[in-house]
Amino acid sequence: MPANTLLTAIRAHLKLHPTHTVVIEPIQSGASGRTILRLRPDGHPTFIGLHYTNERPDNALFLPIAHFLKDAGLNVPAVLYDNRARNLALVEDLGGDDLLSLKDAPWAEREPYYRSVFQQLEKLMYLKVPKDLELMPPFTEDSYLWEQNYFIDHFVEEHLGLNGNSLREDPQLASLRKRLGAVQRGLVHRDLQSQNILLHDGQAWLIDFQGMRLGHQEYDLASLLYDPYMDHSEEDIERLLALWEEVADERPIDALLRDCAAQRLMQALGAFANIVHNYHNDWYKQHIPTAVRTLRRLTTDSPLESPLAESLGKAALA
Fold this sequence. Notes:
This protein has 11 helices and 9 strands. The protein is of the alpha+beta class. It has 2 domains: 91 residues, Phosphorylase Kinase, domain 1, CATH 3.30.200; 219 residues, Aminoglycoside phosphotransferase (APH), C-terminal lobe (Aminoglycoside 3'-phosphotransferase, Chain: A, domain 2). The longest helix has 25 residues. The mean pLDDT is 95.
């Protein structure tokens, strides 16, 4: 079992007696093929234990990417013990507070952490990737097609019970993925949302970056600004854009940001529906209405409004 394997690893790492007390606190064990535990050995600092399977190809990429990002000066947890032969690691425990925990906090309390996130994102954009560092394949027209089909398979058909054939053949969705897939400019986190940003020592720290790849920086920006978990107001989105402009000395191109946001929200809805129906985790169900409402708002009076109207209209009435 993963827990027993991680217990053995931490006892070996700290040279503890086999009977030394280590308290285990589950953090994640789910759809990604990863088990994540907080390990509390008596008399020692806490650790995060990670055990992964090869169920998903990105799982094995977390550790080498973590070393790369740490060496590059980004805020990521340090890898303290790395045993890739057994698919496990012990990493620095940064605590349990994430950006989502500040959802209802005033802007003045949230602003320093978003500034820190944006500083990390700006650094990420200009990092040179070593030739021997394996990443997930870059975002291309085909990978955006995969995300759209994920949305159609799980949200449109499985969750809503609609026929998704017309969406699979829709020229506007094809145009969207063609536009987005034309260029891969720099590194993107790929899942830069509030639960993957920890708050530690007054700064933001990135986790769950195993899906990192080349793509549009605006995809990460859209993931933050239109995060269904946070449900930002229009006022907050404008504050975030102004803050990004202050950090990066430029605003994103509006049309590109909207394209990335629409694509990202479709992917998120596919993920929510998949986890609810196939992994039986109903926590994600509460965030579907926010994602639907945001996607409707972003696509109103755009070429995507018509093809998405039936699905988003039915979802809004659910």
